[in-house]
Amino acid sequence: MTDYGRDLEFGWFADPDVRSARETLGAAGIADQAGLDLIGVQDHPYNSGHLDAWTLLTAIASTTERVRVFPDVANVPLRGAVMLGRAAATLDRISDGRVELGLGTGVFWEGIAALGTPERSRKERVDALEEAVDVLRLWFDSGRRSVSYDGDWYRLRGAHPGPPPIHRIGLWLGALGPRMLQILGSKADGWLPSLAFVPPDKLAEPNARIDDAALAAGRDPAEINRVYNVWGDFSTRQWVDLLTTTTLEHGMNAYVFGVPPLESELRRISDEIAPAVREAVAAERAR
User: Fold this and answer.
1) Where is the Luciferase-like domain (predicted)?
2) Domain limits of the chain?
């Protein structure tokens, strides 16, 4: 049983379908008004049926007031660490500190290669992502006028980092393999698994790997945000039971729902599921 005691957050996984752009922006406003904490957008630049993730996130942030936005997850091979850093920090300033940064190695490499990025081995993908985490932290947190970095995938020579973000942008990794989990625990700020690929009964092992890596790096595992992308045709009661158990026994603390851009769906999360899960978790923690 693992409960890290973190505050619970709830959000919406917004579909960037080009056919429903207006509906998506309208639903983002409803999610904001309803008090949801997060809106994530998947990033597949090779998919012609998808809106550009960063443009959509910017539009969402510009039409909302409090909800935090993030790519779920950014395609690092295509976007590159430095330009991701500039985009995220710029939007963080525009939105008064409401941006987090989900990062991934890229999944559909046929599509990535079609846009001109050479194929990489699995090891190379992970190597490049680890360097991207280093570069982004240097870019965001150094506080220096110029920075340098000498890696195999990223090389900076007296680069001027900026603009500075308003808050410390969280680096959340879409990590599954052992080495990615080790990098996450030692260097990153959050984990972004999806229920479809890592069901609740499979969360224990990766959480343990993250914790071991965090402790080895002198970090408190409870500092790491654990954000779960969830889909499913469940009743409100079933969702409450599932997410309460997932929080108290499997350590997750934020839930991003993949539901259609409908007020009824978003209000069910904000008005029914979220308060019931918070109440049940608080009651169990109090015991």
Assistant:
1) 9-228
2) 9-286
